[in-house]
Give the backbone structure.
Amino acid sequence: MDEEFLYKRIQKALENIPENFNILEEQIDVQLQIEYFEFAGKFRKGKDVGLMIEQKELLFDPSQPAELKRKILVALASSVEVESFRTIEKYFKNPDEGMREWSVLALQESRMLLQSSLLDEQQVFISTGLGGKGQKLRYFVVFLSQGGKELTAMQKKLLYDELKYVLDRNEGEIEEFTTKLDYTTAVVILPLKALLKDIFRGVIDECNQYGNFLKDDMVITNVKRLNPVEIVEILNQQKMGGEMDKLADEESSG
């Protein structure tokens, strides 16, 4: 699918999100989130939901297996009773090893269901791998240096200052900022409906007025923090793409 077309569809979808949305603030792997909701969907079709709710105290028994506790948590999360929410909340404060993220998802789902019941209106739940803060999302951004060169101290400061300035104007903030040999990464917070492409393109364009030291291409994701190996793979793909374009130009001119 064309990147520009996909971007416009995402922006259109964001415009239709109501004001009463909730964002998962925790940073939880997307695959685990999918596993949780698929598990919950299948389990709730069975006949054991009521039984698991009745056995909620087993959550606090360290001798009980994780599988049982996963079932109890998704069962409690499907209940509109305040007591069920309080039970999940209590467990969330001191979960078993390896169960914290599962309990976070159960707590968020339970809170949403309770709010829907009390307010008598459907709640919208938005989750990403990097989570968010309040009604804002967290993004991992990679700025690529021209020519594979490390930025100078002045260029690093210019990029940071310009990024902070633009984010401040768009109700955002910088959480992390790290410069490497041929790229710079940042973890930022921005409102859900922020125009990401315009914001980060503006940062690059402004910085490049002082030496054209950043590539026009960038990487923006809210799925996860990319590790150095993944970033290097992206850089290599770009280099390969550039070499192919150069070869095509030479062949057409020849």
About this structure: The chain is about 50% helix and 15% strand. Residues 228-253 form the longest helix (26 residues). The chain has two domains: 20-126, 135-253.
